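Good morning C.,

I know you're traveling, so I'll keep this short. The sequence:
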Amino acid sequence: MTLSDPTSQLITDLESAALSAGFAVSQFGQIQDWPLLAFTRQGKRQDGQAIYLSAGIHGDEPAGPQAILELLVANEFSSEYTYYLCPVLNPFGLSQGIRENAQGIDLNRDYRDFRSPEIQAHRDWFEQSGIRSLSQCIHLHEDWESRGFYLYELNFHQAASLAPRILQAVSEHMPIETATEIDGRPAQAGIIRPESIPEIEEGHPEAIYFQQKFGGLNYTLETPSALSIRSRVEAHKAAVLAMR
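The tokens, ready to paste straight into the viewer:
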């Protein structure tokens, strides 16, 4: 590993773009030679609207971090909202093109037991930040089995769903998944919307942890890995922009 490896360069580019867009940069952990970074920026609105966005928790899903980079470079994040961005949660996995971290842990199943240094550090940063609620949580993912885009929506307080806007925006870049069952869960027109917190035996994903801790609307966005990286990046960007 060198400072010029692609993952290090991506993280450097993300930090530079975040600073140029007016975000504060915090390092909440270190994995080998890679920092775990969070970007924050206070919005103009006084109603507490805060948006959390994460990517790169699975190292074989590179479109999410790239989408965040391009949104930062283009300064596309609205100045109206407060943002918390964690763009690369699994730098080791990203460097190797694998799902898990160096210890073989699926980080997106580690928000119950907190075995990994990455997720321990992520949890600790949020606990120390003083954040009490989030209006939207967005988690960027990819699925090697799907043929179209789909999303999970956690929405247990009958808030107005953003899913139709997301799907409309994404449909300009790729097809929407039409399967009526995805990952063993019922789906309709690209939406998986459980009525309660699902039980996942192997551990809690980030989305469940954030829903339980911070409330709000919670979206896990999935682009199909079989499509081109460019279409996946553009779909994620379109989805994020549709939610503001």
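Safe travels,
E.
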